[in-house]
Structure formats: C-alpha cells, structure tokens
Write a structure and sequence with these properties.
The chain is an all-alpha fold. The chain has helices at residues 2-16, 20-27, 42-49, 51-81, 97-117, 130-140, 142-159, 162-179, 184-200, 202-210.
C-alpha cells in the first residue's frame, strides 16, 4: 500500500507544482513575483500581462486539479489491478482496500493543491490555490462546484474584487458539498481546503479592511518593471 500512496502523492504534487503563472510571465521577460501582488496566480498575471495570459493561467491551473483527480487517482487504482511492480506492496489482503481506493481521487486533489500553493520549484512559495481547488471540485463534486462558482460570480459582479469573491466562494464550498449530498470525507476536505484558501488570502483581507484592495476594471498603477505592492506569499 505504501508504494501506491507514495506514487499518488508524488505525481499529484508534481503536477500541481507546475508554476504556470511564473512560467508564462517568464516567457514574456517578466518575473511575476516582483510585480503587482507578487503572487504567481491568474489574477496577478491578468493585471500585469493582460486578459489572454490571465485566462490561460487560470485554465491550466484548474486543469492541474482536475487531472490529478480524474487521471492520477484512477491510474494508481488501475496500477493495483494490473499488478504493476511499483504497486506490488499494495496487496489484496488489506481489509480497507476498497475504502482507500474510494478516497484516492480526493487525496490526489489535495496533493495537487498543496503543490500549487507550495511549489518546490519556487522555494515552496506558490499561488493561493483557488483555480486548482476549482478544478479539483469540478471533478470530485460538480454540483457543489457549480454552486461555489455561481457564488463567486455573484460576489465578483457586485464588488469587482477577485479576492472577496474567492473568499466567499471558499466559505460557500463546504456548505455546497453538504447540500449536494456528498459524504463526510468531501465535507471535511472542502472545509480544510476552504480554510487554506482563506488563509492564503490574509494579505487581501487586510487590504479589503483598509480599503486599499485593487478592483478588477480599475487602472493598474504598476508596469512589469515597477516595484511590488506586497511581499509574495
């Protein structure tokens, strides 16, 4: 069992750790960590490099989460059934085998989000995990994801704050998971990941309280060559 779980954790983390925003900005000659909010996520890329780059980063970051759930989890399960050598330590004598397999997609999603938030390629400093979490729950619990997405859209339309919309959606996600009839595992996972997303927005919360948070649609005062407004987190 240990070999299979280690493989799942490693592959999912590695997929999530791909620093999409950093790589896209670097290709354009910009270190995204030194401009805007200093974050490598889609919102900062959108502000600094424009809509096209921001949408691309958002899409790829979401796909990392979805692929971890829908590809890596099933790959490990198939590896057991096919008796691949890497999974040889996972034997059918385990009384909890079926239950563990049922949890593999959720574990893969968690690892992908941790990879995005704490990428090994950037000294374990990454994004805030909103897009990757969205991809994970789009694959794990589509109905709950739809409710959280609708919540995000309503709050964003009313406020024009990406951070506020993300925080409210993170609060709404566990409730949506519960309302759509998912089990205790996903309720617990969504609660923990929602709390992590809120924690990663602590600097945004401070700026929202101070009235200094940037709205989408307002002119960005910085260029790629200018100084960052906050330390990257």
């Amino acid at each position: 069992m240990a070999a299979a779980l280690i493989t799942l954790i490693f592959l999912s983390y590695l997929l999530g750790s791909i620093p999409t925003g950093f790589l896209v900005a670097k290709a354009k000659g910009v270190d995204i960590r030194s401009v805007g909010s200093g974050n490598i996520g889609a919102t900062n890329v959108f502000r600094i490099l424009g809509k096209g780059a921001g949408i691309f980063v958002l899409t790829v970051d979401a796909m990392k989460g979805a692929l971890a759930v829908s590809v890596i989890g099933p790959f490990v399960e198939r590896g057991y059934h096919l008796s691949l050598p890497v999974f040889s330590s996972w034997t059918s004598s385990s009384s909890n085998l079926s239950e563990i397999m049922h949890h593999l997609p959720a574990l893969a999603g968690i690892c992908a989000i941790l990879g995005h938030n704490y990428t090994c390629w950037l000294r374990f400093k990454g994004g805030k995990g909103i897009a990757t979490t969205a991809g994970v729950f789009a694959a794990l619990a589509p109905a709950a994801f739809g409710i959280a997405l609708a919540t995000w859209l309503v709050v964003f339309a009313a406020s024009r704050y990406v951070s506020l919309a993300s925080i409210v959606a993170a609060v709404a996600l566990p409730l949506a998971v519960w309302l759509t009839g998912n089990g205790a595992l996903l309720i617990g996972v969504s609660t923990a990941l929602g709390a992590l997303a809120i924690y990663k927005h602590k600097a945004n919360i401070e700026r929202l309280r101070a009235g200094t948070e940037n709205r989408i649609g307002t002119k960005n005062p910085e260029s790629p060559a200018s100084a960052p407004e906050e330390k990257k987190s």
